């Protein structure tokens, strides 16, 4: 069973000031004339390796668990991490390629059958070129409580209309049938918390998938801290979320990605090897 985040929210919204014309948000409202570049051209394998290490730095990982898959243009193959490497040690040369059924067709390592979570979700959501799955701590904490993060901060607006919760838990997923069952329960949601398991984030680009995943666990931590504080809290008003979402994704995605990659390459240049 998948529930929308808006259905799970229980708090009152912040008050929108009267007589104020709200921003329309997004690139149409404002776009920078120039932004700081990464500085070098990256291959797709290098970009994927960077995503693993960026998310490991953000806490969106659990030792050997999890995958990020990136489908090619015609969805005939997927790039993925190998079994046995932690996300913070993946380099470009470690990236494997599997066919739509999860069989390794390129790479020096093996890939766990849990990649069926991804292969089936790519089939269910063909527009989702990238699928991220792992067990970040604060996501798992809310998953155990049967909760999704509420819209407590403006950054969470990037999940508006996309956040879901799958309440069933069927154990290890290691077959196409189990992967297809989970994909069916996820439906069209693109930011999903799985009960007693972890999170799945889908996106059309590696940049957006990384940005959303990094933001998700932070918003789950914020939700947990609000619960611990046990004080009245408000949520971002529904009418302002779409504009804020547009601004975050249309203006923020590439800038977030470039900054995260610059910092990573400066401190861990071996990621590109």
UniProtKB/TrEMBL annotation:
Annotated Gene Ontology cellular component terms? cytoskeleton
Database matches in Gene3D superfamilies = Class II aldolase/adducin N-terminal domain
| One MF annotation (Gene Ontology) recorded for this entry | actin filament binding
Mind telling me which InterPro entries this protein's record contains? Aldolase-II_Adducin_sf, Aldolase_II/adducin_N, Aldolase_II/adducin_N_sf
Q: Domain (Class II aldolase/adducin N-terminal): give its ranges.
A: 46-224
Protein known as: Unannotated protein
- Origin organism is freshwater metagenome
Organism lineage string: unclassified sequences, metagenomes, ecological metagenomes
């Amino acid at each position: 069973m998948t529930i929308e985040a808006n259905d799970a929210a229980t708090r009152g919204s912040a008050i929108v000031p009267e007589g104020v014309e709200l921003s329309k948000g997004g690139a149409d409202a404002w776009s920078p004339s120039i932004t700081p570049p990464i500085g070098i051209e990256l291959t797709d394998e290098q970009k994927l390796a960077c995503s693993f290490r960026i998310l490991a730095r953000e806490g969106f990982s659990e030792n050997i668990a999890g995958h990020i898959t990136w489908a090619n243009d015609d969805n005939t193959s997927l790039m993925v991490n190998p079994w046995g490497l932690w996300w913070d040690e993946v380099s470009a040369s470690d990236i494997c390629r599997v066919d739509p059924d999860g069989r390794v067709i390129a790479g020096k390592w093996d890939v766990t059958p849990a990649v069926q979570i991804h292969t089936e979700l790519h089939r269910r959501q063909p527009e989702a070129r990238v699928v991220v799955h792992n067990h970040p701590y604060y996501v798992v904490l809310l998953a155990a409580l049967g909760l999704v993060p509420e819209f407590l901060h403006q950054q969470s607006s990037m999940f508006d209309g996309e956040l879901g919760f799958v309440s069933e838990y069927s154990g290890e997923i290691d077959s196409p049938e189990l992967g297809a069952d989970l994909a069916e329960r996820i439906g069209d949601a693109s930011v999903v918390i799985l009960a007693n398991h972890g999170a799945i984030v889908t996106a059309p680009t590696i940049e957006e998938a990384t940005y959303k995943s990094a933001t998700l666990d932070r918003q789950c931590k914020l939700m947990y801290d609000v619960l611990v504080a046990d004080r009245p809290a408000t949520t971002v008003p529904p009418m302002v979320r779409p504009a804020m979402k547009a601004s975050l994704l249309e203006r923020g995605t590439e800038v977030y990605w470039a900054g995260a990659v610059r910092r990573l390459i400066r401190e861990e240049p071996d990621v590109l090897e």
